[in-house]
Design a protein that fits this description.
Layout lengths: L10 H20 L24 E10 L2 E8 L7
Antiparallel strand pairs: 1-2
């Protein structure tokens, strides 16, 4: 019977993966998309809008095996046009 080996990953490594996923995945994928009909333009992402540099990771919860949930806050307040 094979012995189970627990693998540990540093929170800093998880944070880097999250930052890459937010930047290359979510923001790049959504920056050209139109907002939903009832969406507010101040929540748009991309160039000169909300970008990865505007976010700070404030909490990282281990919600289940191999699953983490990140919570972000904005570094600057949003202003309505």
């Amino acid at each position: 019977m094979a012995k189970s080996v627990a693998r540990f990953i540093a929170v800093s490594a998880i944070s880097r993966v999250i930052a890459t996923t937010i930047s290359r995945g979510f923001i790049q994928e959504h920056q050209g998309r139109p907002m939903e009909e009832d969406g507010e333009p101040i929540w748009a992402v991309g160039a000169r809008k909300i970008d990865v540099t505007d976010l700070v990771l404030v909490r990282l919860d281990h919600v289940s095996k191999n699953s983490w949930q990140a919570q972000f806050e904005l570094l600057r307040p949003l202003h309505r046009s």
